[in-house]
């Protein structure tokens, strides 16, 4: 069973360059929306994200498998 997860966010990129005869200004503003299917159950409290050099890394750890548990059965 695959679980669908959606990531949304926004970004702003500004670039100002001024040289002797050139003045340039660029601006990128936008929103993004990505959905991916995860093949395992995840631990939402331990999700980490890092944005560096234009790359967004998202670390999503798998949830630990449930341990077997003992159930007492009453016999009559």
TrEMBL record:
InterPro entries: A-crystallin/Hsp20_dom (IPR002068), HSP20-like_chaperone (IPR008978)
Pfam families: HSP20 (PF00011)
Signal peptide (UniProt feature, chain positions): none
Family matches, as CDD domains: ACD_sHsps-like
Domain SHSP: 1-76
Sequence similarity: Belongs to the small heat shock protein (HSP20) family.
Protein name: Hsp20/alpha crystallin family protein
The species this protein was found in: Paenibacillus artemisiicola
């Amino acid at each position: 069973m695959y679980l669908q997860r959606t990531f949304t966010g926004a970004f702003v990129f500004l670039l100002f360059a001024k040289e002797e005869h050139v003045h340039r200004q660029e601006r990128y503003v936008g929103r993004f929306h990505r959905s991916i299917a995860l093949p395992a159950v995840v631990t939402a409290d331990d999700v980490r994200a890092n944005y560096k050099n234009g790359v967004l890394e998202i670390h999503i750890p798998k949830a630990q498998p449930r341990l077997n548990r003992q159930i007492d059965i009453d016999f009559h």
